[in-house]
Write a structure and sequence with these properties.
Blueprint: E1 15-19, H1 29-44, E2 48-55, E3 59-63, E4 68-74, H2 90-100, E5 104-107, H3 113-123, E6 128-133, H4 137-150, H5 152-170, E7 175-178, H6 181-190, E8 196-198, H7 215-220, E9 229-233, H8 242-250, E10 259-263, E11 280-284, H9 289-298, E12 301-303, H10 313-320, E13 325-328, H11 333-336, E14 342-345, H12 350-361, H13 365-376, H14 381-416
Parallel strand pairs: 1-2, 1-5, 2-4, 5-6, 6-7, 7-8, 9-10, 9-12, 10-11, 12-13, 13-14
Antiparallel strand pairs: 3-4
Helix pairs in contact: 2-3, 4-5, 8-12, 10-13
């Protein structure tokens, strides 16, 4: 039996749904991805888009002649994280899915919400389910904290259980993808998942460029061109480990005259404010993307201690701005910072990071910056969306169509028996 390709852009449009905990109104990798996906759907396809995310209250907003639907479900804030909320109301999620009947549902986390999608698929077998591995939670939220407070043996055991849970969960999906090889794909394949795609996120390559460099920004910090400016952009919390970056910065020789700029908000920020005399600046979250592009281009080196990046969009934005990167040899950073674009070192080791910063600053920074920019040019949103819709979604929807056909055949056989 020949199956119609349900992901084809011809004919009437489909409804694609995204259900996630990882939503913030002020940035974040998942939020950036969902906004670009919506733009792609509205501008390049005949399809419609439903986003179900946590918010301060229950709301339903319908725009673009009914093609863009955003539903927020009242959810409490995540402790210690000012911009994120915990969506636990699976029944409300299920009601929205039942009301709108999407053709495909994508989940960006592995907690309770995928089970709402699975329950919906049981009622509507033709619904395709896609899982995006956006957070390596068995390591980030299980192994590291459990090991810190309960010991490495308990942390390791809890992490292994969590990975087994991921394997059991994702086998129920029609398609699974990660955003980088070392940031998720290799781990998922090790769980026995047969087909794990890699769909890198994109970067606004026209927005981030060395041409955005602005000497006036450096002057605001009291720096001249001879003083290296190190920069980090992201949440200032335990997951991103800005404390390691600050510790590494403080180990640099005073004669270097370097400065460190931390663009972001979070529970660690209060430890860094008021330290301008140390040339440590933490002005808060940069909400304007053009301003972020100017700050990145006006810096000299991007520094990050985040060990569990699944893609590292801030790293690629820095590289697109012409910056070498000093990071850690773990997660997606292994993929993002190959030889010649900076250095990666031991996780959580400020001494190693400080030595790598000095090594990079002593090298050919201009050549590294040019190579970093060339490396970043491969990560366009057009390429990302082409992989997502042309390969992952198409495969998932064909699989769902086959499942629906065979279910119908079984019902016919059972009825005639």
């Amino acid at each position: 039996m020949a199956l119609h390709d349900p992901a084809s852009s011809s004919g009437s449009g489909h409804l694609y749904a995204d259900v996630t905990q990882s939503w913030s109104e002020v940035g974040g990798g998942v939020g950036t991805y969902l906004r670009h996906k919506r733009r792609h759907i509205l501008d390049r396809t005949p399809h419609r888009h439903l986003i179900i995310v946590p918010g301060a209250r229950d709301t339903l907003r319908v725009e673009a002649n009914g093609r863009a639907i955003t539903a927020t479900i009242a959810s409490p804030k995540v402790p210690g994280s000012p911009h994120y909320r915990l969506l636990l109301r699976n029944r409300a999620v299920g009601a929205l899915l039942e009301r709108h009947r999407p053709d495909l549902i994508e989940c960006q986390d592995a907690y309770n919400l995928p089970w709402a999608a699975i329950a919906h698929r049981k009622r509507h077998p033709s619904t395709a389910l896609v899982a995006a591995y956006c957070t390596d939670f068995p390591t980030v939220y299980v192994d590291r904290p459990f090991s810190k407070f309960l010991g490495s043996a308990i942390g390791g055991a809890a992490s292994r259980l969590s990975y087994r849970y991921c394997g059991a969960l994702y086998r129920r999906f029609d398609a699974v993808y990660a955003m980088s090889e070392h940031g998720g794909a290799a781990k998922l394949r090790a769980l026995g998942l047969p087909h794990v795609d890699v769909v890198p996120l994109g970067v606004e390559l026209g927005q981030f460029s060395p041409a955005k460099r602005d000497p006036r920004l450096r002057a605001k910090l009291g720096l001249d061109d001879a003083q290296p400016l190190l920069i980090f952009a992201g949440r200032l919390d335990g997951e991103k480990r800005p404390d390691v970056v600050v510790d590494a910065f403080r180990r640099l020789p005073a004669s270097l005259g370097a400065a460190l700029l931390l663009l972001g908000d979070g529970p660690y920020r209060e430890d860094f404010v008021g330290r301008e005399s140390e040339r440590l600046f933490a002005p808060g979250y940069c909400s304007n993307r053009d301003d972020l592009a100017r700050w990145l281009a006006s810096a000299d080196l991007y520094v990050s201690a985040m060990a569990d990046e699944t893609f590292g969009i801030s790293i690629v934005e820095a590289q697109a701005s012409g910056l070498p990167v000093v990071g850690v040899a773990a997660g997606a950073m292994v993929d993002r910072v190959p030889d010649g674009l900076g250095r990666v070192g031991e996780v959580g080791c400020a001494g190693a990071m400080s030595a790598n910063i000095l090594n990079v600053l002593a090298g050919d920074m201009a050549a590294m910056g040019e190579r970093a920019r060339a490396h970043a040019l491969q990560f366009s949103w057009d390429e990302s969306m082409a992989r997502l819709f042309g390969r992952v979604y198409r495969g998932a929807m064909l699989g769902a169509a086959r499942r629906s056909v065979w279910r119908g055949v079984r019902h016919e056989v059972a009825a005639s028996a």
